[in-house]
Every structure is written in structure tokens, then in C-alpha cells.
Protein 1
Amino acid sequence: MLTQAHLSQVLFPVGEYTKTQVRELARAYGLPVAAKHDSQDLCFLKDGDYRGFLRRHGDTALPGPIVDTTGRHLGQHAGLSDYTIGQRKGLGLAAAEPLFVIGKDAARNTLLVGPRAALGHDRLTARQVNWIGGAPDGPIVAAVKIRYKAAPIAATITPGPDGSAAVRLDESAHGITPGQAAVFYDGDVCLGGGLIADETWPQPVADPWVETSTR
């Protein structure tokens, strides 16, 4: 998300040193940082309990309906922040086939679930896109990563006039999650990226509070 204005001010004070070399230098100079572990997950939480943090500092624990893609009411969730896209365990549902979280409808506080096949999508919209070297004049072909450890997927990326970009993937990807970054690459060169928009996900077609489950 860094712009050219940001990058023009960037300094790298440790130069070409690796992380291991930096730790060795810290030990040699008696610096306490040498004994610290690498930061992982939400490093500012001492207990690692991000759900508890959200419950204490935000209005995120409101229960609501769990529905499938037809709007059928299957159960009740404990708060949308407790669930992630692609999650299977901990849903508290009994079904003939495994169900996964495939979306969240924050406006109606609704959790959307479906079979594994429903997790796959071949397109997304990115908002607040930053083109590091400048926006292209039209559609380009590049690799897209939808999370840090995800394999890059070839895609056609079409920039929009409002700072958005329409991304059409060459193959379906699982776990495209609104709010996470979609980053564009040409080989090892980062072209830019943006935040995955909420409208990527399907919405229930019926009133989620209508109980139609036969369980």
C-alpha cells in the first residue's frame, strides 16, 4: 500500500544484513532485542486471544442467524468476528455434508455457509488500489496473491476509474476474503494491490430469520 511518496522516504538502516546477522550483532552489543521471538499473529496481544480483545473493545459479539446460500436458517452464530472464511470446525451445525463459512453479511449480522465447492471464486473486486509504478492504461495480465502464503494465480486485472480493479482469475481460488489484500505481481516485482471488496460474496436470497430447517 506504499505510494511513491512513501517509498521516496524509505531508509534501510541495516542494509544487506540478514535477520540472523542482526540478532548476532544485537547479542554482541548486549541489546535485549536479541532474546525476543519473532512477532506472529497479533503481536500486541499478550495472551493471543484476539476474539476476547474484540469482545472487550468492540460490539462484535452479537449473535445472529447462520444460513445457507438459499437463505435457509440452519442455526445461530455467536458473533461474526468469531468466524473466518473457509472455517469448517466450530460451527455447531449438523448437516449431511461438511459446511464451510463462505461469507458474512454484516448488515444483517448473518453468517453464510455452504459446501466446499461454494468457496471457489474466479473473480473479485479490489478497492483502494495502489499501483506502485503508476496505474496501467487498460487491462493487464499478472499474478495475484489473495493471502501471504497463497500461491500466485494468473489473472486479468482491469483498473477502474474510482481506484478499484476488477480481477478475473484464470482458475478458481478458495478463501477469497473481504478486507484482506489482493496483491499483483510481475514475477518478483510487486505491481501494487488493494483490499478485497465485500461485494465479492453472494448474499442470502431469503429472510435469514425465517426458520425453514427440517432438522
Note: The mean pLDDT is 84.
Protein 2
Amino acid sequence: MNKKIIIISSIILLVFATLPLNTQAKTVAQFEEEVKRYTAQLEETNASLAKNEAEVAEIEKKITSYEKQIEDAKNRIETLQKEIEESNQKIEEKSAESKKIIEYYQIANGENAYLEYAFGATSITDMIYRMSVVEQLTEYNDKIMDELEQLIEQNKKDQKELEEKQKSLVKLSEDAEKEKKKIQADSASLRDTVPSIKTQIAEAQAMVKYYKGLGCGANEDIQDCQYRVSQGSSESLPSVGFFVRPMQKGYFVRGFSSSHNGYDLSSSNKTEPVYPIADGLVHAIYTDDCTGGRWCQNMGFSCNGNAKIVVVKHNYNGGYIYSSYVHLSSYANVRVGQFVTKDTIIGYMGTTGCSTGPHLHLEVASCFWKNNGGCTYNSYLNRLINPSKLVTLPSKWNNR
């Protein structure tokens, strides 16, 4: 082998061997405390959800009331409009009737000698009586028309007030609907913990039981305890000295940051085979809790289903690290507890879960929150490792 290559390889191995893995102590006692804390958090969340549901129920009652009042106002407006139209019709009829009476009255007051014959009066007394009736009818019609005009004005006023009330009710209903959606969104975000609080409680309880079963002391670092016990077993996990890329060919998409827990890698082959970055043990095969809730929506897109994930545990530098392979389209023929090499296909690149397109999300940490991986989800987030510290990830590659 070329001497220069040997020197470079030795330097790389030395860098990896001295890489800090952020191994903060975690004990059985701390796990028991976290179980209590998560349980209290779950109770608080359930109480908040119950409160939200009660508020939504009250808002729905208000909305139903508003909708009924809006419908009543609409019906009353239609009734008033009909009354206005009927009143106008009566005014026209009374106006025509009054016109005829007035014409009669005007003729009756003329000096035409033929009046007695024309109007059928048999005497002056009869004529006076008939003229008196005409005057009374005219006054009566005038009174009726005045009342009808007042009714029309009142109806128009009532109609205007009802229209304003209807607008106000529509606004109240819209505001109530917005408040309802806001509360429901809050409930959705409470349910959309990643992973769920119930899952975290179950995992923490399982780890307390597991590490107590191993004989770990209440205040002993459980990672150290697990490593010590496993190394004394005939089934101990072989140590690895270097790491390789998880795909034969691909390109860089997105790096590690405070808002991104790993590296996003993709390939022209949208179902590119995925391999472990080193020899190890399949620690977990599962789908995440992504349901298109708050944390995904804040990134500007929704989930298309739960992400398929494989997690591999590696023995490295006197401890364990865990590599996660996320958004797989499908799993390969692997199982939890199976020893895999860096050349074992564990799945195929895809876009399951919270994803905008086919890619592999590679995540690395010095513990894992499932299957007795030595930490809860919150402490897992604090023990993430930038994958580029272990694996060389150029902008594009055609070999591992």
C-alpha cells in the first residue's frame, strides 16, 4: 500500500478515535424522574384537551344560536318586504278609490242642474246626505293611506335594523368559527407531540425495567452499564473504526443545524438502496409519529404518511452510537436484533413521512429514545451528532 495513503488513513482513524460523543450521564434514577415528569405532562395535556373540547362545545352552541337568529332575521326581512309590497298595493287601490270619490264630490258641488238626476238623489236632503257620505269616505281613505304610509316607513326602518342585526350576527358567527378553529388547532398541536407523550412514557418505563434487569445501579450511567454488561457477554457487538456513506451514489441536499437533526441525501435513483454507515446491530424498525401537525406545517408542507425508519446501533470508541435512516420507501429483509454489516441493505430511499421528495435523512446520536437506547426523546435531541463528523459527505459521490 502507498505510504502516503497509510499516513492519511491513520490520521483519519485518529480523528475518529478522539471524536467526543457527548455522552452525558443518564441513570436509572433520572429515568424514573422523567417518567414522573412525562406522566404529569400527559395529565396536564389531557386536562388542556378536555378544557378545549368544552370550549369548542360552547362555541358550537353559540354558532348554532347565531345561525338560528340569522335565519329568523332573514325570514322577518322577507315578511316585512312582503308587507311593504302589500301596503303599497293597498295605497294604490285606496288612491284610485279616493280619486273616484273626489270626482264625485267635485261634481256634486257644481252648479249643474242635472245633478239630482245624475246622482240619483230624490231630494235636496238626499243630495246633502250623499255629499256627507262622500266627505266621510274621502277622510277615511286619507286616514287609511296615512296609516299605510306610516306602516311602510316603520317596516322599512325595521327592515334596515334587521339587516344590520343580520350583518352583526354573521360577524359574530364568523368570529366564533375562527375561535373554534384556533382552539381545535391548539388541541391538534397538543396531540401532535413528536413522539407522543404516551410513547415517551412507555419507552422510559421500559428502559427503567430493562436497566434494572441488567443490574445497573440507581445512579450508574446506564450507557456505561449496558456497555460493561454487553462486553462481558459472548454476544458483544464488535467495535468499528470508521464509517462509510449510506448510499452507493447520491448528492447532498441539506446539512445539520439547530433546526435540522441530521443530513438529507438524495440520488437520481429515487429508490436507491440504503446501507448502514458501519457494522452494527439493528436497534429499531418503526414508523414515526408524524401526522401532518404543527411541526411539519411550520416547515411549509404537510406529511403524506408516517416515515419508515431503521435505527442501527454501533460499538464505537468505547461506547454506543445510533444511526437512523429516515423516510425509507420500504424496509429490506432485516429485523430488530440482527447483526448487519456496512454492506447489508437495510431499506430503500423514499419520501414517507414529513418529506417534500425522495431522500434519505441520516441522523446520528450517542443514545436513542426507543428500545432501551439509553435516553428519553428530550435528552436524545441534546445528544445528536453531526453526521459529517463521522462520514465524509461531499456535494456528490459515486462510491461509498
Note: Confidence is low (pLDDT under 50) at residues 1-25, 111-118, 291-302.
